[in-house]
Design goal:
heterodimer, B: mainly alpha, flat
């Protein structure tokens, strides 16, 4: 059985994730095993797994199948986890997803405290998704409480969860670029500098940001853990803080104003007959057979995502506009949808490999290849706004080895005209129907072609030609 | 119980914040923490206590 380590799992020596035989495993040290046994014995574990909030986990009889990178002598036991369909990262989530992930972390922290356990960290990467339902996947985060010690995860909760949420809620600045730029998140001192004097009086800022930053500078080189213990620090304080944090996070809101895209459907250039024909086309292509994984690139309000998702085990809906993804997330969450994952992402600047060796966080494509991809009302934006050559875009799509439903708005299309008008005559000469179709033909087998009633948009269904 | 290390540095400042903001129960802890620091500072309490 071939096995390999998860490159993003090396920080905690007591608990390391690896893959073997298509499932997710976790190698535990002696100490990790004792923590796991303490967790497994609680009703918290049983209840949260049953509610779908904690990943399903079982202990293997023998610690077998370890990859070479993990020293077998240091492994006391191996766990097997249920798999989440597609791994995603906080810098790909809209505000509402990071907020729900935060609330799940705090719920589990409070539950753990009742069982004399605690979470040893607070990384939002420990939360993954079944559609819009968050699931905590790092069982190795639970450990037995140590008397008299504060919560070690508090700082990480601030830098990777609370401050990013505050940045969006209080300043209207998207947190995704920051989290993508720094896997450690926003430092307390940085956060303080981002906030104005008036912001200091917003909920939670004075303590979690201003005081936190000040104390961090002041006590940078001093050991205080023992002093706090002697002063009588106890678990009730952690509980009180966790409750306060929960209240604070619950009240953080982001209500995006109208963006170009959030009003796209109501103001878009194609009329209802086009939309109806497009829906039929997508329905037929998606319904041809059941797919394992569908990608909808440029999903906008998710209208076509939903049609495709009816015939797929799992669907990832990506859009560059965080406001439309936020709206889609809220709709889907209210429906308790668990097979559509909405993500923020720009095709012309996709999630790269990040962190140690550039492998700790992986590009989207490494996290699951689609067998059907929708690219509706997309190619003109990629080609005309981001200036990606049409052939290059199709080459990239061909590399996915996926079936494809793609829409091509011709040069006569009002939206295309608007994009071209900004650039002047003769711009993007490679953007025309003939070139597009030839390039598509070279790389795919075109199964179906249909011009929409408006006459300026053409839909293609294509299969990999190999 | 095994080793007492944490793989994640909890941060000294971050720990003290938690002793200050925890409501009524925190007042006593923070007060005692700073009082002991003060005693240490004026030399009444020996440093090797920590």
């Amino acid at each position: 059985m071939e096995s390999r380590v998860e490159r993003g799992s090396f920080r905690d020596p007591d608990s390391r994730v690896f893959y073997a035989g298509g499932s997710v495993h976790r190698a535990l040290s002696e100490r990790g095993l004792a923590d796991w046994e303490a967790l497994a014995a609680t009703s918290l574990f049983r209840d949260k797994v049953a509610e779908g909030k904690l990943v399903g986990t079982e202990q293997l009889a023998e610690p077998n199948g370890l990859p070479a990178e993990i020293d077998a002598d240091l492994v006391a036991a191996v766990l097997r986890h249920e798999r989440v369909p597609v791994v995603s990262y906080p810098y790909e989530w809209p505000f509402g997803m990071l907020k729900d992930a935060a609330l799940l972390q705090l719920e589990l922290l409070l539950g753990a405290l009742d069982e004399e356990l605690i979470l040893k960290d607070a990384s939002p990467y420990n939360v993954q998704w079944r559609g819009t339902q968050p699931v905590f996947v790092d069982v190795g985060s639970f450990e037995r409480q140590r008397e008299g010690e504060p919560w070690a995860g508090y700082r990480q909760f601030c830098t990777l969860v609370l401050y990013p949420l505050m940045l969006q809620a209080y300043k209207g600045v998207p947190f995704q670029p920051w989290l993508r730029g720094s896997l450690e998140g926003i430092e307390p001192a940085e956060m303080r500098r981002l906030l104005s004097f008036r912001d200091r009086f917003r909920r939670g800022v004075l303590t979690n940001v201003v005081l936190h930053a000040k104390l961090e500078t002041r006590y940078a080189d001093r050991e205080v853990k023992q002093d706090l213990k002697r002063a009588g620090f106890h678990a009730e304080l952690i509980r009180a803080n966790a409750r306060k944090l929960r209240k604070l996070v619950q009240r953080l809101e982001w209500n995006p104003g109208r963006t170009t895209w959030s009003t796209y459907r109501t103001s878009n250039p194609y009329d209802e007959p086009d939309a109806a024909a497009k829906l039929d086309f997508v329905r037929e292509a998606a319904g041809a057979r059941r797919r394992r994984l569908v990608w909808d690139l440029g999903c906008n309000d998710g209208r076509f995502t939903r049609v495709a998702a009816l015939h797929a085990d799992y669907t990832v809906a990506v859009d560059a506009d965080a406001a439309v993804v936020e709206a889609l997330f809220r709709e889907l969450r209210d429906e308790k949808a668990d097979t559509i994952l909405p993500l923020v992402g720009n095709l012309a600047d996709p999630s790269p490999g990040l962190g140690w060796r550039g492998q700790e966080r992986r590009p989207l494509l490494d996290r699951g290849r689609p067998d059907l991809t929708l690219a509706l009302a997309l190619v003109h934006h990629v080609a005309l706004t981001s200036n990606v050559p049409v052939r290059d875009f199709l080459d990239w799509l061909a590399g996915l080895e996926t079936e494809l439903v793609i829409e091509f708005p011709t040069r006569d299309d009002p939206m295309v005209q608007r994009l071209l008008a900004r650039k002047g005559p003769g711009a993007n000469p490679d953007y025309d129907t003939e070139t597009f179709e030839r390039a598509l033909n070279e790389r795919w087998r075109i199964e179906r072609r249909e011009t929409l009633p408006s006459g300026t948009r053409i839909l293609y269904r294509a299969s990999p030609s190999a | 119980m095994g080793g007492l290390f944490a793989y994640l540095d909890p941060g000294s400042g971050s720990m003290i914040v938690q002793a200050i903001v925890g409501g009524v129960a925190a007042v006593a802890v923070a007060g005692k923490f700073y009082w002991r620091r003060f005693l240490g500072f004026v030399g009444i309490r020996k440093k090797n206590d920590s």
